[in-house]
Design brief:
Layout lengths: L16 E2 L10 H12 L11 H17 L6 E4 L2 H11 L7 E5 L8 H10 L2 E5 L7 H8 L4 E7 L11 H11 L2 E5 L11 H4 L3 E5 L11 E5 L50 H15 L1 H19 L17 E4 L8 H7 L2 E2 L1 E3 L2 E4 L7 H15 L1
Parallel strand pairs: 1-10, 3-4, 3-5, 5-6, 6-7
Antiparallel strand pairs: 2-8, 7-8, 9-12, 11-12
């Protein structure tokens, strides 16, 4: 079901065309208000009870779990995707002579931890070049072999939205005995994802893009097989067993809280960021991810139609995420493209050779027209 414009939920002036959700989403008013209310509690700390250190974060992990068809116990709260991927790299087996498959030009957070781990053990970091056809899934399946220990990928490529069929890739990982580590920052909240179908070992996602939340709140899904004996990359009091009993914290428990909580960051109970992030997730769940996808896809299709006369190319629809456009020119985009667009109150990104255009529910047909007209004026 297509949704009506949700611009009224945001603080975006009518003359601003912000088509840059892949960079950073604007905060909804309700998200900002939840964060301010949470921050204000610190002015009267006697109103913050020990149970509040646990209830807010558990509500947040439950909301995220609902997005991916997981259990709340499967979710850890982390500060960044790099933290989540580093946790995966710490726990997934990798030995000399094996390989880790990554895509070329993937965002660094799901590459650098694997590069370091591969160096430590003498494994190969197998980087797939961008396929000429745009068919990333086929390239991944062809690159895997019996020495593949880990496949570390996004759901869609952050440069141009090139799509990875995670169910097919996940099935091949299981057939070969390889682990699957995902960074779904540029897709979750718009593209439906069911971990019971994909079956990743670890899945990380930042909260400040398509999850519409604040910075510094991210999420880590850990499959149940890694929850019993997994090793966290930090040790703190709040993920230890019986942490709710403040009077006995100096018993220094060896055991962990149940599920993926063993991977939680310290100070996970941030009283400003946690309620803001939860408010954002609750709104996405209220919209329905399928409805968000359908609505944003229609906006993206209109953008492609409007800029077609300018000679820009884009990946075919069956090879890219529906919410994500990487517009390419025959030559490199002019150096002043972004500043010139900004003068016209139009905001997009450049990533590699692509003009990255990523709309959301706050965008309107007027935004599409403003972008097309501004781009035509700048490109001449």
């Amino acid at each position: 079901m297509k949704l009506p414009s949700q611009r009224h939920l945001f603080d975006i002036p009518d003359d601003v065309a912000y088509l840059n959700c892949a960079y950073m989403s604007p905060l909804m008013r309700r998200v900002r208000e939840a964060g301010v209310a949470g921050l204000t509690r610190k002015a009267q700390p006697w109103t913050i009870a020990p149970r509040d250190f646990f209830s807010g974060s558990d509500a947040l992990r439950a909301a995220f779990a609902a997005l991916i068809n997981a259990r709340a116990d499967d979710i850890a709260l982390v500060p960044a995707v790099s933290y989540g991927v580093s946790t995966a790299a710490r726990n997934l087996p990798l030995a000399r002579g094996q390989n880790v498959v990554v895509s070329a030009d993937q965002f660094p957070s799901n590459v650098l931890p694997w590069r370091e781990r591969a160096r430590e053990v003498g494994a190969e970091l197998r980087t797939l070049p961008c396929p000429a056809t745009g068919a990333w899934t086929d390239a991944v399946l062809e690159a895997m072999d019996d020495d593949t220990a880990v496949v570390a990928l996004p759901h869609c490529h952050w440069v141009d939205g090139g799509l990875f069929d995670l169910e097919r890739i996940g099935a091949e990982c299981r057939r070969r005995g390889a682990a699957l580590a995902l960074d779904v920052t540029q897709s979750l909240g718009v593209l439906p994802l069911d971990v019971t179908r994909v079956q990743p070992d670890f899945l990380s996602c930042a909260g400040y893009k398509w999850l519409m939340g604040p910075y510094s709140v991210s999420f880590l899904y850990a499959a149940e097989r890694w929850q019993q004996h997994g090793t966290p990359i930090e040790h703190n009091w709040i993920h230890r067993r019986n942490a709710e009993d403040f009077a006995r914290l100096v018993d220094y428990e060896d055991g962990f809280e149940p599920g993926a909580r063993r991977f939680d960051m310290g100070e996970r109970s941030n009283f400003a960021l946690v309620p803001a992030a939860e408010a954002a997730l609750r709104q996405i769940l209220e919209w329905g991810v399928d409805n968000v996808r359908e609505t944003v896809e229609a906006l993206a299709d209109r953008i492609v139609e409007r800029v077609a006369p300018l000679g820009l190319s884009v990946l075919p629809k069956d090879l890219r995420a529906p919410h994500y456009l990487g517009l390419r020119m025959a030559e490199a985009p002019p150096a002043q493209l972004l500043p010139e667009l900004a003068k016209r109150q139009v905001f997009v990104s450049l990533r590699g050779p692509a003009i990255r255009v990523t709309p959301h529910l706050y965008n309107t047909q007027a935004d599409v027209d403003r972008f097309a007209e501004a781009l035509e004026a700048v490109l001449g």
